[in-house]
Design goal:
Length: about 800
């Protein structure tokens, strides 16, 4: 035997320990997954699916083994023992990192993907703090993993017949795979979402998504087409609206159909509108076929209401619901409310203000979460209440493991609201509530009472053993429904005593279904109820046609305009169309859907649903049937591509609605409109943009935007924008800096970037005696850049 053959044999013998250890831990990992899944979830034929998943893991096992062997091969010529340790360490690291990835899936029943890059650190930290994670238990499990891994490595290293052992293990897996294939598969022609999620190797999926995020550009056939053609193509593929402008591709002449009009009387007395967004409320919780009524009050209310039982949220997470429900706004790049510099836009909040509505938002958690405060303040909301606005009479929710102050439960949310109404007698209102109890950490008040109530309900219900097991498994989450339902009962009882109740429209929906309870299909991730209740309602009705949260705002504005004389404007940018009111199951819906990872790669069009590269037909109760139809697939794919292109263009340019239409619809006026270009260099610090004389101290509020392009390949930031308020003697009364950050601009030379900054100056800035608003750039750090088409607009509602 040659020296080369000897070394090859020696190396191959060396690889047996890490390869067999890796194989064993793929099996052990799936076993642990099955054990944890059975502890956290109630799933049919779980172990059959787990066994089959082990077989599906073999390609992943092979890739991990090859990567480990490659690392060993590099180190082997240097030191044989170190080479062995490197192989074992690589396997150890892979399976160690698999633990948190698997744990995320166990908690959410959603595989971890590129969403870690789509969320800010603040969001991630808040999510972790509210997840109710037992950190001591995690440390114990990690130590247990290390001990087990060391024991397996030692045992494998001690085996004399390692090759025979490996062959026996493979043979056992093959036998198990045959059994699992026979007993563990779904019925023919069906698509079992939950089973598919179990088959998926969570770490392999995560690393593939990470690779796609950083190195793989998404294929979009419209990406390199001229801008005008991209927008024209979008208009052709979404023909439901009357478009009239390619500069503002979402801007439309309003569809004035009034599907809700026949359900309400006509009156010169505009109604109060109350929107209640219930965290985690999926439609299945109100399903009449459900064996146990966990929300009896809401169930009774829907029977007196217009109830859409095939209604869709437009995002997997709660950041999507507010922009869609009150503005029919496109998703934006990462969720509209989360945009760094969101464009001017129209919503129920800023449009109803024109007609004298007092607007308010009421929340029991932090307003920073999903940027609710920033989004609504940019709509000039009158009242914003979050967890910082509750008094000592309300008990805070504190997670027992992290000590994090999540906020206040739903009953406190409503009690706090009625406390403010004792002094606020305004009866023309738009009030928006966002509940939080049906969200991790799932902490409720009077827990013992609701524990007993939940168990009594289980015992009183005619449940099969399987159903009883399901309700016991998810008790921690599902008993919060009882709590929130009681909170809603309290809210309506109290509100019915207020003056103006008889002239109020209540809208109730969920942001998305509760993620901790597994859903049955891909589309069920978005399936939420919509309930429209009012004492003015002339008849109740169950509406089974498919609509989405995009369709609510256009319908409400048309109802208020045509039945109650509220000003709505001729133009807008609503993505949706007025909501469908056909009673039987049907669909004319068009709804792009944003995943939890902030990508829009799913869309509903009519009764079709496209998810990635898989096409389905939508049946009643959102059941999905796989469909092979190249023509339909192509149409939906093109619509999705066109939407994403235009959606991202609007974010980049800030041109969602023209300034003049924005001003008309919101009752504002443009007080400054400037367009300039100039060069900034390191030799000069200050660059004037404009000066605005103020007459008689009447300017109380001003907001707007500054946007443009900057030419400099190295420019990550711009000079600071400065606002100064000066008195008659030119003395500075107020000084406010605003940072301007640049972002890459597509389809242009690499040295050109763009910036788009929302500006707001409130009453704290405009103090008495201010006679001059001075705006300039401060080139403090000596940038050498060129500002191209710097556009500056400022609006005000109180300059006369």
């Amino acid at each position: 035997m040659s020296l080369r053959d000897k070394k090859t044999r020696e190396f191959l013998l060396l690889t047996r320990t890490p390869i067999i250890t890796n194989l064993l831990f793929f099996v052990i990992g799936r076993g642990a997954e099955g054990f944890l899944m059975s502890s956290y979830h109630h799933l049919d034929n779980l172990w059959g699916s787990i066994i089959l998943a082990v077989i599906y893991d073999l390609p992943v096992f092979a890739i991990v083994s090859l990567l480990g062997i490659t690392l060993m091969l590099v180190v082997f010529p240097i030191d044989k023992k170190v080479s062995l340790y490197c192989g074992i360490f690589f396997v150890f690291i892979f399976h160690l990192f698999h633990l948190p990835i698997l744990y995320f899936f166990i908690l959410t029943f959603t595989p971890l993907d590129r969403l870690v890059f789509a969320h800010s650190w603040q969001e991630i930290i808040t999510t972790i703090k509210t997840a109710g994670i037992n950190y001591k238990l995690i440390v114990i499990r990690l130590l247990f993993f290390v001990v087990v891994f060391a024991g397996v490595v030692w045992s494998v290293s001690s085996l004399k017949e390692r090759v025979k052992f490996a062959k026996s293990l493979f043979a056992s897996l093959l036998v198990l795979s045959v059994l699992a294939a026979v007993f563990g598969q779904s019925k023919p022609g069906s698509f079992d979402y939950r089973r598919q999620m179990i088959y998926l190797h969570k770490s392999a999926f995560f690393y593939t998504e990470v690779y796609r995020h950083f190195f793989s550009s998404e294929s979009n056939p419209y990406l390199n087409l001229p801008k005008e053609y991209q927008i024209q193509k979008y208009h052709q593929l979404f023909p439901a609206h009357e478009y009239f402008c390619t500069e503002y591709p979402f801007m439309i002449r309003r569809n004035v159909s009034n599907p809700l009009g026949s359900f309400f009387p006509e009156s010169e007395n505009p109604p109060t509108v109350v929107l209640i967004i219930v965290e985690g409320l999926g439609n299945d919780f109100l399903d009449s076929n459900s064996p146990m009524a966990l929300m009896p009050f809401l169930d009774s209310l829907r029977k007196e209401s217009l109830y859409w039982d095939h209604f869709l949220g437009v995002g997997e997470r709660s950041y999507a619901v507010l922009p869609a429900m009150i503005g029919s706004l496109p998703h934006g790049e990462i969720g509209f409310s989360l945009l760094r510099d969101m464009p001017l836009h129209l919503t129920l909040v800023n449009q109803l203000s024109v007609s004298g509505y007092k607007t308010g938002f009421y929340y029991g958690q932090g307003g920073y979460f999903h940027a609710k405060y920033a989004f609504l303040k940019r709509n000039n909301i009158d009242v914003f209440v979050d967890k910082s606005d509750y008094g000592k009479n309300f008990e805070i929710i504190v997670d027992e493991h992290s000590g994090y102050h999540w906020g206040y439960h739903d009953q406190a949310l409503f009690r706090n609201y009625f406390k403010t109404r004792e002094t606020d007698k305004n009866n023309l209102r738009l009030d928006i509530f966002f509940t939080g109890t049906m969200h991790s950490p799932f902490i409720i008040d009077q827990e013992e009472y609701y524990d007993e109530k939940y168990q009594l309900l289980i015992n009183a219900s005619d449940l099969t053993p399987d159903q009883r097991s399901y309700y016991n498994q998810y008790e921690r989450y599902l008993k919060t429904l009882l709590f929130t339902d009681d909170a809603l009962r309290y809210f309506f009882d109290e509100y019915s005593r207020l003056e103006g109740f008889d002239n109020t429209i209540f809208i109730i929906t969920g942001d998305h279904p509760m993620t901790e309870v597994p859903i049955q299909s891909l589309l069920k991730r978005y399936h939420v109820p919509l309930i429209l209740y009012s004492p003015m309602l002339q008849k109740s009705q169950v509406i089974s046609s498919i609509s989405s949260q995009f369709d609510v705002m256009p319908a409400i504005m048309n109802l208020l305009e045509q039945n109650f004389g509220v000003f709505a404007g001729e133009f807008g940018h609503m993505f949706g169309t007025p909501i469908d009111t056909i009673a039987h199951f049907s669909s004319r819906a068009v709804a792009p859907l944003m995943r939890g990872n902030r990508t829009v790669d799913e869309i509903v069009v009519d009764d079709y649903f496209l998810s990635g590269n898989t096409l389905f037909t939508i049946k009643e109760n959102m059941e999905l049937v796989p469909l092979v139809d190249p023509e339909v697939f192509s149409r939906l794919s093109n619509m999705l591509h066109a939407y994403n292109i235009v959606n991202n263009k609007v974010v980049e340019t800030g041109k969602l609605v023209s300034d003049s239409i924005f001003a008309v619809n919101t009752g504002l006026q443009i007080i400054k409109d400037t367009l300039i270009s100039f060069k900034v260099n390191s030799e000069r610090q200050y660059y004037d943009i404009f000066q605005l004389p103020l007459e008689d101290d009447l300017l109380q509020l001003a907001f707007g935007f500054i946007r443009g392009d900057v030419a400099d390949a190295c420019a990550e930031n711009l000079p600071t924008l400065i606002f100064e308020l000066r008195d008659a003697d030119n003395k500075v009364l107020r000084w406010k800096p605003m940072g301007l950050q640049t972002f890459p601009k597509s389809s242009v030379p690499n040295n050109v970037r763009y910036f788009n900054r929302f500006l707001e100056l409130d009453h704290d800035f405009f103090v008495p005696g201010g006679k001059l608003l001075n705006v300039y750039l401060w080139n403090e750090h000596g940038y050498n850049i060129e500002l191209i088409n710097l556009e500056f607009k400022l609006f005000s509602s109180t300059l006369f």
